[in-house]
Amino acid sequence: MKLLTSLLRILRGCFRKTPTVHQDEPLARFLTSKTQFSIRDNYVKLGAFLPNKNNETSVFRVADLSEQGIWDIGDKDGPRRTIYGRADFGARSVETVKLRLVLDKTPSRHGNIVGWPADKDEQKAYARDLANMSQLKIRP
Questions:
Q1: How many CB atoms neighbour CB 107 within 10 A?
Q2: Which of 2, 29, 87, 133 sits between 20 and 30 A of 45, alpha carbons compared?
């Protein structure tokens, strides 16, 4: 079923115009585990960006949203778990680490970081780079 869902997403993408993302556009990765960040040291850990079993990392476009608007997107369309914080970063960061951002707009403003290498150590290196280029925002 997961394969079928992935194939349908790819096919839908072939028949519609793909929106573009400006390199300076802000993105947010919602953090659903306290192990993904350090409040004391004010940084995002590499585990926050590691890809899921589909080799994707979910992110949201947050340009033109207020702080509360960003949290609202996470609550409405984000992960179905408690959101403790988020990692804010620029779209340019994805390209810098040689990955790609694919927008699927399901839900609205959603996209995935894709192109992860198969090697777990390489994935950690890429995730570390993304984490280092992000800013931690703790949920008020």
A1: 11
A2: 2
b/e sequence 109-127, b meaning 16+ C-beta within 10 Å: bbbbbebbeeeeeebeebb
pLDDT band at 108 (very low <50, low <70, confident <90, very high): confident
The alpha carbon of residue 65 and the mean position of all alpha carbons in its chain are separated, in whole angstroms, by 16
C-alpha to C-alpha distance for 138 and 116, rounded to whole angstroms? 27
Closest by CA position to 137, among listed 58, 48, 30: 30
Average pLDDT over residues 57-79: 95
Length of the chain: 140
3-state secondary structure of 8: helix
Judge whether 27 and 89 are in contact, CB under 8 Å. Answer: yes
Burial class (CB in 10 A: 0-12, 13-18, 19+), 48: buried
Alpha-carbon span 33 to 39, nearest angstrom: 12
